[in-house]
Amino acid sequence: MKKNVLIIGGGGVAQVVAHKCAQHNDLLGDLHIASRTKSKCDSIIESVHQKGAMKVPGTFEAHAVNAMDTAAVADLIRKTGAQIVINVGSAFVNMYVLDACIETGVAYMDTAIHEDPEKICETPPWYGNYEWKKREACEKAGVTAILGVGFDPGVVNAYARLAEDEYLDTITSIDIVDINAGSHGKWFATNFDPEINFREFTGTVYSWQNGQWQSNTMFEVGKEWDLPVVGKQKAYMTGHDEVHSLSARYPQADVRFWMGFGDHYINVFTVLKNLGLLSEQPVKTAEGQEVVPLKVVKAVLPDPASLAPNYTGKTCIGDFVKGTKDGKPAEVFIYNVADHKEAYEEVGSQGISYTAGVPPVAAAILIANGTWDVRKMANVEDLDPKPFISLLNRIGLPTRVKDANGDRAVEFG
Amino acid sequence: MKKNVLIIGGGGVAQVVAHKCAQHNDLLGDLHIASRTKSKCDSIIESVHQKGAMKVPGTFEAHAVNAMDTAAVADLIRKTGAQIVINVGSAFVNMYVLDACIETGVAYMDTAIHEDPEKICETPPWYGNYEWKKREACEKAGVTAILGVGFDPGVVNAYARLAEDEYLDTITSIDIVDINAGSHGKWFATNFDPEINFREFTGTVYSWQNGQWQSNTMFEVGKEWDLPVVGKQKAYMTGHDEVHSLSARYPQADVRFWMGFGDHYINVFTVLKNLGLLSEQPVKTAEGQEVVPLKVVKAVLPDPASLAPNYTGKTCIGDFVKGTKDGKPAEVFIYNVADHKEAYEEVGSQGISYTAGVPPVAAAILIANGTWDVRKMANVEDLDPKPFISLLNRIGLPTRVKDANGDRAVEFG
């Protein structure tokens, strides 16, 4: 049994995590939030109080911290008495925060893989480059570290495990499909930090097929998917974290990730990429100023947080899992549908942030009550998916399943 | 009679001017070239000697000068003994160089209108904002100043005047059409300085119609033109210098400028513009760095000079002039066709630079021999077009005319 939560980060996902932690502070204890810019944390706490989100009277404090300074994070953990750290800061800080958790013996979780700002798309499996090198250290320190516990990666990993546990005897393919059928009303915008968003699509697209890594380029492989609620949608094979852990648990299966893109997004992306404006490497202007083009693109694009108030429509994210059941071919689609406007009304963020921010709070509750407090490093598919999915059903992200027996809610017990 | 030429500028057009001056140094005397970066001038002179372009043994010297420092330019004029200054530097330096010419009493010419780096697209007529304010000063000092004597503006202004002098009794419309049907083989590139190129298309499109200024936006008004050699081409009404002087001489006529653009160019331009990446106003990155987006776009695009070796295809630029002849409606198309590869072989630049760089050298020869040494400020349509067009016929830019009597070379005497 653990309690008291420290949230690292001050962006859109941190906002959701803060609201959801507040809604369950009877279970989670004292709440703290820290980022480089304390004022962002102050604003988030203010919005929590405006919504009256705290379930019971309690502590919610803001702090300034440089999350790339392990000693500073460790000090903050000790000072706050946090036993659970939810890291939803930039993808560049993971390893520093994880080290601080190992040093202080507290639980760690994040929602996206560690990235080196200087590198785009390293060799697969990505987790092997950073996180998995700390497995022994976690086990030795008895530290629960749950990697990638947002929606994708995260819930979709639990869906794969649920297919294994409940619906199929053997698994031959896992296709994760992420469709945002919402509309933000801007000419162009990214749904989260443009720098991270574009970095995701500029590298090699790795998929696991026929027992080995396959390389493609972004937008090279497209496929139309017919999904509940959002209908037929074109998605493209995309490099994504969960492929790099699911392929280790299901080496016999093809594991692919597909993200939906409209023609307009692809066109803008293609222009920027082909011109060199998505480069993370500095260029020199005629006046001699050194500039990273991607950071200028980020500067001219709308702040993703600004999209939330006018965002309408729905997301659909889920796993098409194929294999056999009782010796016959079988297929199941396990999925969630979320609504941008409902998310904004509840927590002041759009649906993309909502689907990413609710799952780590569910994981925190499962660590707090001992269910997932495994005292070692785990990817989500390593853990029992049922209590996680049950809890998500109750706190805002209901799961449904569609197979030969119809389209229905997933309920346990 | 004047002699000795000082070229201001070190880009692609300056390269053409240098080669063409060298080919006529028997008439033009000593040659000098100056830009902020002297090494660019050294390279240009080196290429002149590599081609053996100097007609007779003579002087060709490189200098460093800040062309926005009138006193420094005046000193250089005195030091070199130049009596003719060909300004093909950035559009931001015109007024400083013109002032230096007035101060020293030497002839001035340029190929594009003065621009303030801080402003995009000022109120019409553009010449009224800067150049024409110096008319009296030129006349008083007896200084010949020929404005906009590239191809467009420049030769196309002479074509309008030729239509008036030779082909029509009244003029009701002048449509200048500029088509580059060449191919540079890059995914995207601009044919001259991207900063100037994009600035040209981000402001209001002014045209002179029905006796008044009309405002449109770029790519709002498109029209397919059927042209000699390059065939049917889509062009868009574009703001351009010559509209702002021709409308003063021909106030009764509609005066429009049309530039050809492929769908690919328009798409790239539209993406960059709508994202804010063509802005000349600085933005601040998340890291606090102040950056002008347009300068970053310039930094990632190919150097226009690098396009020349692989450029193929032709340009067609000319004037469709309508009016009456002997009381009946009449129409004439006066035009030039230039070839990118031939231009590169002769002077080491592509066709766009060639068409812009040859006309000021023709003008310099006409000033040197007295024909155009009018000792006042003039736009090209104010001058007798015949000696200019005759000379251009002989030095690389032949003029043709197409009307009810057929398609034929324009020859005089």
Automatic annotation (TrEMBL), chains A, B:
Saccharopine dehydrogenase-like C-terminal domain ranges (all copies): 150-396
Annotated ranges, domain Saccharopine dehydrogenase NADP binding: 5-146
Record Pfam families: Sacchrp_dh_C (PF16653), Sacchrp_dh_NADP (PF03435)
Family matches, as PANTHER family: CARBOXYNORSPERMIDINE SYNTHASE
InterPro entries registered for this protein in UniProt: NAD(P)-bd_dom_sf, Sacchrp_dh-like_C, Sacchrp_dh_NADP-bd
Name this polypeptide is given: Saccharopine dehydrogenase family protein
